[in-house]
Amino acid sequence: MIWLADAVLVLHALIVLFIVGGLLAIWAGAALRHAWVRNRVFRIVHLAAIGSVALLAALDLPCPLTVLEDRLRTGTASGQGFIQRWVSAWMYYDLPLWVFAVAYVAFLLIVALTWIRIPPRDR
Q1: For FRET with 67, which of 12, 21, 86, 100 sits at 20 to 30 Å CA-CA?
Q2: 5: nearest Cα among 85, 93, 72
Q3: In Å, how far are 10, 66, 89 from 3, measured between CA atoms?
């Protein structure tokens, strides 16, 4: 089942990349006046993705993908979230869960403000 846990990890990383990279792409695209940054479907999916992450963190609920990966690897769920675990692994730096919750909600607010400043358009 390790291969399945690795697949969940890759999916999780792609979602993180979509959330963070999507915001940066929106900003860059808006600066370059690309029309795709105002695509309503893309923007709704992006907002919903970070909104889900922020809501789970604010409610102190574990990410379902992290729980699934843990169960596939070890048979049990870990107490750490995806970002916390990999920040710890990559940087050997551990932060309390509330720090990540604040960061996720702050990122959600940035995405929401971007929605207002660079609004999507109907077709």
Answers
A1: 21
A2: 72
A3: 10, 15, 20
